[in-house]
Backbone:
């Protein structure tokens, strides 16, 4: 199956090809991102500070789904989509 903006009738939307390409490129970037996060955790010795901590993970769209996946495997973590965050003023 062809995965481009035209095959889904989006050619009339300006620059939709750029968004489409970004969406389909994301799975290729996940291992690279994981490697970078693991490296930073190690270099900054962050894991010891997070042990047993309550953590809030946020994101919008795909990042919210990633946060939910991480929170489901991390005791003490809570995922909140940024679109759900409200400020009561």
Residues:
């Amino acid at each position: 199956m062809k995965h481009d903006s035209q095959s889904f009738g989006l050619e009339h939307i300006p620059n939709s090809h750029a968004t489409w390409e970004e969406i389909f490129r994301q799975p290729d970037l996940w291992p690279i991102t994981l490697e970078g996060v693991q490296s930073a955790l190690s270099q900054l010795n962050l894991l010891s500070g997070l042990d047993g901590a309550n953590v809030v993970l946020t994101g919008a769209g795909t990042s919210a789904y990633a946060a939910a996946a991480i929170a489901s495997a991390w005791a003490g973590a809570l995922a909140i989509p940024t679109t759900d965050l409200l400020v009561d003023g």
Remarks:
- Helices lie at 16-43, 46-50, 62-73.
- The chain has a mean pLDDT of 81.
- The radius of gyration is 17 Å.
